[in-house]
Structures are given as C-alpha cells and as structure tokens.
Amino acid sequence: MHNYIQENESRFYNELFSLLRIPSVSSEPEHKGDMTRCAKRLVELLMEAGADFAEICPTAGHPVVYGEKMISKSAPTVLIYGHYDVQPVDPIDQWKSNPFEPEIRDGAIYARGANDDKGQIFMHLKAFEYLVRTGRQRHNIKFIFEGEEEISSPSLTDWIKANKERLACDIILVSDTTMISAKVPSINCGMRGLAYMEIVVKGPDADLHSGHYGGSVANPANVLCKMVGSLIDSKGRITIPGFYDDVVELTQQERQMLSRAPFNAREFKSEIGVPGVRGEKGFTTQERRSIRPCLDVNGIVGGFTAEGSKTIIPSEARAKVSMRLVPNQRCGKIAELFKAHIAAIAPKDVSVEVIEHHGCDGFLIPVTSKAYQAAAKAIGEVYGIEPVPSRGGGSIGILAEMQQILGADPLLMGFGLERDFIHSPNESYLLSQLFKGMESIALFYKYYDR
Amino acid sequence: MHNYIQENESRFYNELFSLLRIPSVSSEPEHKGDMTRCAKRLVELLMEAGADFAEICPTAGHPVVYGEKMISKSAPTVLIYGHYDVQPVDPIDQWKSNPFEPEIRDGAIYARGANDDKGQIFMHLKAFEYLVRTGRQRHNIKFIFEGEEEISSPSLTDWIKANKERLACDIILVSDTTMISAKVPSINCGMRGLAYMEIVVKGPDADLHSGHYGGSVANPANVLCKMVGSLIDSKGRITIPGFYDDVVELTQQERQMLSRAPFNAREFKSEIGVPGVRGEKGFTTQERRSIRPCLDVNGIVGGFTAEGSKTIIPSEARAKVSMRLVPNQRCGKIAELFKAHIAAIAPKDVSVEVIEHHGCDGFLIPVTSKAYQAAAKAIGEVYGIEPVPSRGGGSIGILAEMQQILGADPLLMGFGLERDFIHSPNESYLLSQLFKGMESIALFYKYYDR
What residue of A is the nearest CA neighbor of B226? Predict the structure, then answer.
C-alpha cells in the first residue's frame, strides 16, 4: 500500500482534515449539531472509499454510523469499531494552534482528535479504500463508529443488541490505543474488567462526643478501616473467598511473550513518584498491572475532615472500593462475592451496606489466534520488527459487551504513541504512524483468515 | 444556709440576673466590651460578698477575674475556678425568651449562662458571702474566673504559671458540670486526658489511573486502612506497645463504688441509635467510657469522595485519630508512643507522617481524699442521699494543667442537670439546684479540712 499512500497523500490530508475541523465534542450540548455533521461526513467518506452502504443510525444519544461492503456469505467478516466524538479542548490557551484547524508541524498532525480517534479511524477508511480500488478485498468489511465513546457509550449496547445480526462478524478490529513505542510496536490483546463497589458503615444516629462515648460503642470509621484493611493479605492477595476461582493462570510461554515489553523499574517509580513497588507475590510489576486482578480504595470519607481537630465518633464512614478483573472473571459474580464477604465480616453492632456502582468484564484475544497472528505478521512486516503482545490494565466496557453479544473477539491494533497527548492540549498524531498504520491494516487483511 | 437563702432570695435573683444580662460571648469579637463589663460586675459581686481584694487581670485574650479573702497562713486554702464567658445564642429563633433577659418559668431560670457557668459561679459567691457574713469562714478562699473557657482557655495557662504563688491552694473546687440527676446526686472525681493525632499517608505524586497502575503500587488509602485497622485488637485493646504501662487499674472496691451510678443499657443504646455496645473486654460500658482509655478515628479522607465513581489510586489519605487517656497516662508520652508505633508499622513504599494536634492529661481526685469525703458528706446532707462518685469520659485540659502547676487536685462539684440544655437554645437552671448547690458548698467548707 506504500505507493498508494504516496500517490494519494495530499487527498488523504484534505479528507482527514475535513473530519478534524468538525468540533464533535460529545459532552458539550452546544456541539449537538456538529455530532450530526461529523456523522454525515463519515458516511460520505465511507461511500467514497467504496462502501456498498452507509448510514446514520439514531440512538437515544448521539448517532451511530454504520457502513459495509460485503463480498460473499462464505468470506470471513471483519467489524471495525471506532468513535468520531472527541474530548473537550480546555484549557484552550495551552494549545499552540487552533484545535479544530489541523496543522502539520514536525511530521505530526496537531488537532483535537488527530489520534483519538479520528486519525485512527481514518487509517481503516483508507486501508479499506485501497483494498476496494485495487481489487484486493476478500473479507466482508463492516464499520461501526459511535459518537459517545468519550462519555462512556451510554447508547451503544442497546443499539448493538438491536442490530446483532447485521453486525455478525469473526473479529472486531479496533484502533483506539497506543503501542509501546515506534521502535517497540505492540498489539494489545486484552484488557481488565472492573467491579466498582462502595461500603457504607453506619453507627450512631448522629456524630457522638468522643469523650462521652469513646471506648463504649463501635466507631464506624474504625470498623471500616479494619474491614478494608483485611481485604488484601500480606502476599498481596485479595482475601475475598472465591475471588480467584475464575482467574486463568497464564502459561510460562505466555508470560515470556508479554515480558518482552521493555520495562525500566527506576523510570516507572520516578515517573509517578513512589519509593517502591508493591503487589501480588510471584508476579512482576508489569504483570501485576495487566494480567492480575487487584483491589483499590478509590476514595474514603467519614467524620471531621477539615483542618484542625474535632473530637467526634462519626455517625458514618464510606469507602469506594474497586477491583480490576482479568478476562474470565465476571464482574457480576465478583460483585456478589464482594457483598457476601463484607456481610460475613461486618460486625453486628454497626449497619453495613454495600452499593454496587458499575462494572464490566475484561476481554482477551489469545496470541495463538489467527487474528493476532495476522496482525503480528502485518505489523512485523511494516515496522521491520516483530511486535510484542501486551495487556492493558484499564477497562473498555463496550468491547467486552460487544465480545459477549456478537461472540467475536476484539483485537486492539492501536498506532497511537504516549507523545500524542490525547485528551490534553496539543493532541497530535505522527504522520509516520498514520501511514504505517494504514499499511499494517491493509496487510492484516492479506494475512487474516477465519 | 437554708434560712439565709430564704431571707435573701430576691436580692440573689437581682444579682444573678445582672450577670446574665451581660452578653459575654467570648467567641464573638463584637462582645469584647461585654466581656470587660461582665468581669467588672464579678469584681463588684466579689467585693460585696466580702472579698478583701478583687481585680480584673488582663491577658492576651479576655481578662481573668481574681479575688480572695484570706484568714490565716495556717488555714487550708480553697481555690474556686469558674468562667464568666458563655456560648453564642444561635439559633436565636428557637429561644422562647430573650437569652439575655432572664426569666423564671416553672421553677427554673431561663437565660444563656443560667447554668453554664454564671449560675454555678453564683452559688460559690453566695456560699462565700454566707460564711463571711455569719462569721463562719475558716478557710482561705480564692476565686479565679476566666473569660475564655468556651474557646479552650488559650490564655489561662500562662496566667496561672505567672501567678502560681498567688493561687497556691489545697484544693481546686469547680462547679461546671452536671450530676446524674436530682435524685441521684453525684460527684465527678476524674476526667480523661486526650492525645489527638493525624496520620498522613502519601503515595504517588498525583492520583493515578487505577486501571493503569492498580495492583503494582501501594495505595495510600488501603495502607491507611490497614494501619488504622490494626490499632485495636479483637479484645478491644489498643495495640500500641507501652500504651497501658501507666494505666492505674482500679480496685474492686473503687469499681463497685462507681457502679452505683444507675445505667440502663437499653436506654443507652436507643438514645444514640446503636444495635449493640463494644469495648475493652472485662469492663462494663460505663467503665469503658470513663476509667479506661480508648482510641477513635475522628475523621478520615482520601481520594474521590463525591457522589458516583472515579477510578483512581489516591495520591494521599489522612486519618485524624484521638485517644482518650486515663489519669496517670501522660499525653506527651502517649503521643510519642503513637508516633513510634506508626513509624514501626508504616510500609516503606509510601511516606507516612504523624501530626500531633493537641493533647491534655486526665486528672483524678481519690474518693478517699478529704475533699471528696467532705463534698460527699455535704451533698448527702442536703439531698438526703449519699452521692455517687462518677468519672467523666471527656477532657478538661485546663484543670489537669492547674493540677500540675499548682499541685492541688480539682474536685468537680457540679449541680447542672441534663435538662438544662447548656450550649443550646433555652438554657436553664433549676432554682432547686441553685439553692441546694449553695447549701452543699457552704457545708463543704464546714466539713473540709486539709
């Protein structure tokens, strides 16, 4: 595809810039019209690239764009997922150029959405166009672009359920993440799930004078500390019975493959400003933050928290506690185990309630899968070096839902780099990554079979 | 003194009301002039009652009033401590009558300060007057009334240190507390001390994404919970090494005397709204809240505490932790033990700091002391029933300081009742308690010898 890119480079810029110029900020109501404009522009680009069919599909929120070009019922089907909405631009005064007037400087495009996710969507549109125009398409190719990714995809699950048959596919291909570096290309083959809970401990009806009552009644904040403090043992293991039952242990080979990702412990510590690392015994730092589950207090509050001192026994104390889960652990089951364990350890002289905030499952595509192997071969050819498989520690709930509803694995072929500053001022996307991404995607189709 | 009271009743009302009419709210700068007016009025009342000498003594804050009438160098000396400042009156619309225009309704005086502490001071002034005018005075009697009790006595310690010799005494007599009830008169013979600390746990420089880092670094809120949760063991004992070293265990006889105070466990629980009690094994609820030390979280905060959820590892978490101490435990030593213990259990992969907020020692007057025995005999005679010794769970730092500086024990002969609603709207003081208090104090002088 290298030559095709060179021949069409200036047209590509014009087309991508036309998308970047539309301020499709999904969280800001004044941009509602821009959302529709952006969706329409995507429909045009899909049709120009060679789709048989593309349309704007209304939802309860911002519309979904769907398009496809089918080859035959027997051909493998690839579903491309991406999003056309972008983050707000504040603080606007820190931008060196207008976020919605794209500029090329030092080999990179600067604009809101240059990477996340308009730039990465665009690679798929152009790889598709190349296949169509050069007669190379041998897969059914479907596109779904949502307008609510930056606001947690509130409408997409319902839309996918309602369009399950239309979306049937063998693999879900996503470019919305980063690779380790341009010199260490990587493919993200899994993300963690999440179960977000809150423990509420209630004691006396009102705050009590700690002199008059101290020592004679349960203090909800002390009780909460004792319970929360007991949830992780001295080996860094979560103490909730059954918590690890569904955790799939990786083979030595899988761990070795993942360990190829470069990691500098000193840099890791100095970047976040901690004197040491800690986690589950028997695993490396990189493993602890990706292929192992964990439990964190995200927030805790109770009693007098202002400056100075006040001598009270708080009436109530609360802790938000979330667990990152690994693929095969189900967030619903973990939430139930958590609730049962808290109920079991809760003392009888206070009232303890557990609120289930939200959750999502993790997902995984095996490195032995045909899709992963095709992506690895494609990227290896373009970058001249075999990509490293990686696992993300965060959670993308909508991909786990798509996996479960559609019965196909998501593969995260992301070409962003840390330097791109997505969600921040001066977001950018390197031209070299944009074009290598297109080539890699085109080659993926060459190597991928069901 | 009964007849003396009857003969002078209306004059007593006029005099007490003249004090109550002055809005001596120490915490409100606009009442600065009223503080001086009130101090002057006390000097007049002291002189009229028969003092040799009384004066307003300036301090860095509101003035102290000092007065005395000496008999002889060899006579025992009683120092009366009280305060002329009062709490603010808000919410003013809940008062049935003007807080600074005293009214007698249903056998009680209604006004701010009616009990706390102008009414209780007044009993001492009139008992003193009675002794002087009837030729019964056989003790040196000294009075110190401060104007900053309701704002934690910031100036008094310095003033007492500077006037140590003038204040030399055998006993410090204080009427600023309640008795159990008019039918169960009691004498408070000790209060607890306090050591108020704050633990600050710092982890990463900034809040971290709990997906990207969760499982690989210490979470300051989890660490804090684990440390705080470990400070009390399953028997309700504080785990800080050396914490109990200076605790004086009470004899069975002392515990039996204290247990005479009526206590209804069901009422105790229902009043504060708790399903059960808890505390140190081997002690009753009343003992746990008075003669035993305790440790309470007064406030805790870290991370995301608003509604909803946010997936972060907090950069910092803090807990305010205070300990009530029993007499003979020194707050300074306990603060050091606390700091050493936290340093010993603090993990090395976070930074843990302990802030020492403030503290005070407890104090105690033995029930076998001559002063306690005299007070018990006096109250027994007036109320027709032997008073119960009680121990307060709260802390009055200034009395422990006076005890240490002057080398004399404080005896808390308080005649307030729970029904008086001090610090609240419609504060009142029963006339029956006012007059029984005067009589009891007069009889105290009859029975007290060094």
Answer: A229
User: What digits encode the pLDDT tens for the residues A279-333?
Assistant: 999 999 999 999 999 999 999 999 999 988 889 999 999 999 999 999 999 999 9
Locate the chain A residue with the closest alpha carbon to B237: A215
Nearest-CA distance B154 → chain A (Å) = 15
Percent of chain A with pLDDT over 70: 100
Pairing of strands B171-174, B294-303: unpaired
What is B184-198 written as a DSSP string?
A: S-EEE-EE-EEEEEE
What's the pLDDT tens digit per position in B414-443? 999 989 999 889 999 999 999 999 999 999
Looking at the complex, does the CB of residue A108 fall below 8 Å from at least one CB of chain B?
Answer: no
Option in B217, B221, B231 nearest A272 (CB) = B217
A vs B, Cβ pairs < 8 A, gives: 286
Report chain A's mean pLDDT, rounded to a whole number: 96
3-state secondary structure of A54: strand
Give span(s): CATH 3.30.70.360, chain A. 193-247+293-360
Chain A residues lying within 8 Å of B392, measured CB to CB: 211
């300051």: which residue's tokens? B220
Mean pLDDT to the nearest integer, A418-440: 95
User: A278–B218: do the CB atoms touch at under 8 Å?
Assistant: yes
Q: Is B242 left (phi over 0), alpha (psi -120 to 50) or beta?
A: left
Closest-CA residue of A relative to B292 is A215
Please tell me the pTM assigned to this model.
0.89
If contacts are CB pairs under 8 Å, which of residues 272-301 in chain A contact chain B?
272-280, 285-286, 288-289, 292-301
Cβ pair B389, B189 in contact under 8 A: yes
Cis peptide preceding A262, ω within 30 of 0: no
Query: Does the distance separating the beta carbons of B298 and A311 come in below 8 Å?
Result: yes
**pLDDT at res. A152:** 85
Q: A 327-356 residues with CB below 8 A of B? A: 347-351
Looking at domain B2-191+362-447, its CATH architecture is 3-Layer(aba) Sandwich (3.40)
Domain at A2-191+363-447, CATH homologous superfamily:
Zn peptidases (3.40.630.10)
In chain B, CATH 3.40.630.10 sits at 2-191+362-447
Q: CATH 3.40.630.10 region(s) of chain A?
A: 2-191+363-447
Q: Is B217 on the interface with A (CB under 8 A)?
A: yes
Enumerate the residues of chain B whose CB falls inside 8 A of the CB of residue A212: 289, 393-394
Partners of A393 on chain B (C-beta within 8 Å) are 211-215
Please name which of A229, A79, A189 lies closest in space to residue A141, comparing C-alpha atoms: A79
Q: Hey, are the CB atoms on A304 and B299 less than 8 Å from each other?
A: yes
| CA distances in angstroms from A405 to A162, A163, A371, A400, B193, listed in the order given | 10, 10, 19, 9, 63
B309 pLDDT higher than 90: no
pLDDT score for A309: 87
Tell me yes or no: is domain B193-247+293-360 CATH 3.90.480.20: no
To the nearest whole angstrom, how far is the Cα of A409 from the nearest Cα of chain B? 21
A41 backbone φψ class: left, alpha, beta (φ>0; ψ -120 to 50): alpha
- B181-195 burial string, b = 16+ CB within 10 Å, else e? eeeebbbbbbbbbbb
- Hey, which residues 298-317 in chain A have their CB within 8 Å of chain B? 298-305, 308-314, 317
* Separation CA B290–CA A214 (nearest Å): 9
B139, B71 in Cβ contact below 8 A? yes
Burial B276-305 (b: 16+ CB within 10 A, else e): ebbbbeebbbbbbbbbbbbbbbbbbbbbbb
Shortest Cα–Cα distance, A82 to chain B (Å): 21
Contact B446, B126 (CB under 8 A): no
Output the pLDDT for position A114: 98
Indicate the angle between helix axes A2-20 and A431-447, nearest 10 degrees: 120
